[in-house]
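Q: My labmate handed me this sequence with no annotations at all. I'd like to see what the chain might look like in three dimensions before we decide whether it's worth expressing. Could you predict it?
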Amino acid sequence: MVNNPSHEELATILSQTLSNDNQLRSNAESRLGALPQEVPTFGIILAELITNESYDIALRQAASTNLRRYVLHHWSPFFASFVGFAPSVEIKCRIREIMSQTLGCATRKLRSTCALVISEIAHCDWPEEWPELVPMLIATINNPDKSDATRYFKDGALRVLCELVRNDLTEQQLIPIAKDLLPCLFSVISAPHDDSISDAAMKIRSISIFRQCLITLTLVKSSYPDLTSSITMELLPNWLHLFKLLLTTDAQALQAMVDRNELHLVQNLVGIKCEVMRTLDVILNGFYNSFRQAELLRNDSLSVFVELGFSTLNLFFPIYQKAVLALEESPAWMLADGGSTEQQEDPIFQSNTILRLPATVINFLKNVLSKPISKKLFLNSNSPTSPDNLSPTPALEILVGFIFQYGQITRDEEEGWKADENTFVIEYLDEDEDNAVQLGGTNRQAVVDLLETLIDVLGQPTVTAVMKHLPEMTNQASQMKSQGISHWWKLIESALTVIGNLSGEFQGEGSVHYNINEFVEREVLNLLTGGSQPLLQGRGFVFISQFTKHLTQDKLQQVMLYCSNLFASGDASNNADSDSGCTITTLCLIKALRNFARYSPSLLKPYSYAILDKLLRILPDAVDAISITVIETIHRVCEPVLDELEAEALYKLADCVLQHLSRNVSDHLLVDAVTDLFTMLSTSSSPLVMQALTQRVLPQLGKALTITEVESPKDHFVIKASSVAVIDGVFKGKLMPLSPGMFEAVAPGLFVTLASSEDPDLIQDCLNILTSVVRKGTDQLINWKSHIDQKSGIDHLVSSLAHVLDPQRAESAGLFVGDLILHLLRKSMDSIVGVLPDLLKTLASRLATARTATFSQSMILPFAYLLHQHADTVLDLLESFHVTGINGQQQLALQLVLSTWCENADTFQGYWNIRVSLEQITVKGDLIITDKNVHTIMTRARAKANPDQFQAIPLRAKILKILVGELQSQLSEQAKIGIGNDELEGLDDDDEDEDWEDDVVDLSSKSKREILQLSDMLGPSASYILTDDDDNDKDVEDEADLKEDPFYNLDLLKHLQDFIQHICQQDVEGFKQLSSQWLSAQELLVVQTIL
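A: Here is what I predict for the chain of 1091 residues:
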């Protein structure tokens, strides 16, 4: 074949790509892939094939698909998938010209694909290279001709606009075209209905485009307030009136459509109403003032749309029930997928199905609650003299009914959960910190959010309406059951799920008041005995476990006994079809048991062994989310009886969990759950627990660290990483001192991993383990010897540090080296005194090439400690050698350490007092203010163009400034808690930091180890400030080895005051000269407050 194929030849190649012959199809596809670089006019030929009606639709469709691929791969570097061979400007113009005509293709699928091609080109070329596109589209839509050809063009134009507005229309581009575009869209929507699918699709797309334009306009309200107000005030009254008409539903006409099975007409209505409600939501959020000022919206006008929302939920619920909830086969099922085949193939209907309609209305109603009118709509005042005595209006009671109706699980969810229990766990049982579940179903989550907002905004009347509705709902479910309706139980299950998921809201401090006991005793307890609906039975157990505080002890003990017996007996998990060995009922029981352990651990204690045994029998077959749920439940069940667990149970638990972990080492969530479990176990004071950890858990994990790449080519790294994570948890959780044999069990594998690993995170975790060993069991490190080379633990530790501090290694690997060395110096300096000079030289050499302040701090920590206790020796050592920096220049090690420390002092947490006098050393001082940086927000670009310049000041001056800065911070902290004096006012009013956009350090996102370095030795106050309340007790125990350290009990404020007063008294004139020359006015004021 020639390199420049004719239309016929290219058509032949395209037809071959549709062949069932794999070889023929593959060859044709390869040929098509090569043509763009061989034939410059390839794109034009494809476009002309699309417009040539003499070819069949399948071939033209193939041409349009390949043209889109051509645009994405060859049109411009704008596209991420661009591979080169871009067409010339002339060829692009010709392709755009031809493709503009394809918008009128009579075949819907081809028209849709061509619109997509034009949209892709527009992403790149509009408006700079294709400015006429949008005016052409608007003119096409405004064409008053009623012919089919014009309708096709309108449909194609709207498809392009819909994509363009959603992805590429900026606020600057919208403003010039808004006054032409929006009336054009209005004319499409307000045109009389003709009941066709294409007409509905055009209306839905027009509403969607209008909504996207409004979203864009919200971004420019502050920049163009007059223009935005003008556009919205001119348009909103008419649009809102139109929306009112579109939301109004003729109940009889709707029922007639259903009776005649004209479901495509129902889907047309559903699609339009979905988009209208979404658009009203945008107006309510972004243009509420315009909404109120519009002519149609006065006083209670918003209530009109609330009523229309209620009407929509009410009229469409019978259809929703048949299409989405019922198991009995019905023609209405097609509505759940978007209606007729033509509608199902159109994305605009796929996103606007009967399944999605309730959430659009509910989200709008939830936003109404943020407006003042909500209380008028939903609250009655029972007493004119007591405005707080409120009750729910009928509207609120109706809304609560909708919550339970649309909170029911769908048929697809039910079938999906039965097929895959992991999906059930993820969508139904996974909790966040507030014991709430992010429910998988769109409508279930929407109604939970609505009820939560109702409780927040309206308070007690909402709960009153809920409790009033519960008996009505159960009666309705009973009637449905007696009528043989198979999904009768979903209504009760919905109430249990929605209310249970908000148990935290109900039971919080100062929360609403309610009485759940009657509902539990009358309805929920009867569900526990089982029946034909396992999900309802399981949901009953979960519900009761969420409200343990509100039930009597007798009732709870009765439920607990039945729950544990049912779970342990295996009756709830006898399901041959379950791959995981867990039925939905079993999973609900596990969730309930976890809640009982959390809220009423004393209830669970008598049954702990039986429950634990069953959980361990379930675990081997559990997969994915189920296995994590089982591990977390084991954790909860063991915690209340931690010190009472017997050896047999502990060994079985250890073996079972570790075997399961070994089969799933790549699941990081499972690794986290196992780590948390063993960390909890390690906090026990029971000798049996320690024995199980030392003799069973740690040896297996230590052995896993010695696995080589040859033994496990694919998983050797994740095996080591998961093992190190669990070991780290055990050593962190163990209180002082370490139990005998703990370090010995993991030492060989730990040092092998440190010596061979290149992964920074793995190295960090290994160093964390060694730090715990040094702090809690230094003797084990000193006394351990390798069976291979007979080297001691200290020798291996020093070798590992040298490996980590290699300049070729990432800094992130050694972030905590300083912390480790610091504790080694504190606990056992004698053991490393022989290698200490070489170690300090290594630290100084690595500090010379450090690039980050965090890593520099880690390198400086050991020097800071030693300078305080052995200043002369350390200073002599640092003055005895030079180091080479990143730029290749050498400098005295002493100058490097002190200057780096001072220059990065602002990023350190705590500063040491260094009593040295080396005037020849100068360091970076304050910023030099110039015309280029004064009153200027310094972005990275500006900083690069105009780099900041700093003073060069003597080291003694820099140290004094650091100490005064820390003193100011301490005095300000004292003042905040009422201990300061009037002279302190204004000392901490430095607002310069507000001008910086970059390099802001968010301490809330830092780990405790990153924050606590020097300051963890400066006294208990520093630790307290930086410690979460929930972890106070654990941290106090974890820092037990620091309590006797003199730095731990140092009163930093008093120490700084005494020190500055002392150096001033020693040389008043010298101090005065140093202060006046180098301290700022604010710093001088701080000094004056203590002298």
